[in-house]
Specification:
Blueprint: E1 2-8, E2 15-19, H1 22-38, E3 43-47, E4 55-59, E5 63-70, H2 84-89
Antiparallel strand pairs: 1-2, 1-5, 3-4
Length: about 90
């Protein structure tokens, strides 16, 4: 399972969605990068492979950071989301 964390401007916590396949996670990453580069305020609707009823829509011009993380089987469920997980592990 791959988690894509999306940080929006002026929102302190990331939005996270999961993809089962690495290719699907990479495709979503590229789609979000394109939206960031274009600066367009078009809506991007995201779904989650882990929680299939989870949906979120966001404006592409509000995205300021994206990360992809592979979730291993031994990883704790209570992990800190996003970019701060690396800092907390040290």
């Amino acid at each position: 399972m791959f988690t894509i964390d999306i940080v929006l401007q002026e929102i302190p916590l990331p939005i996270s969605v999961q993809r089962k396949e690495e290719a699907a996670a990479e495709n979503l990453y590229q789609e979000l990068m394109t939206a960031m580069r274009s600066g367009s305020a078009d809506l991007i609707e995201l779904t989650c492979d882990k929680e299939e009823d989870k949906k979120v829509a966001l404006k592409g011009n509000l995205i300021c950071a994206i990360s992809i993380n592979k979730k291993s089987g031994g990883m704790a469920e209570g992990r800190i989301p996003g970019f701060f997980a690396t800092i907390a592990d040290k």
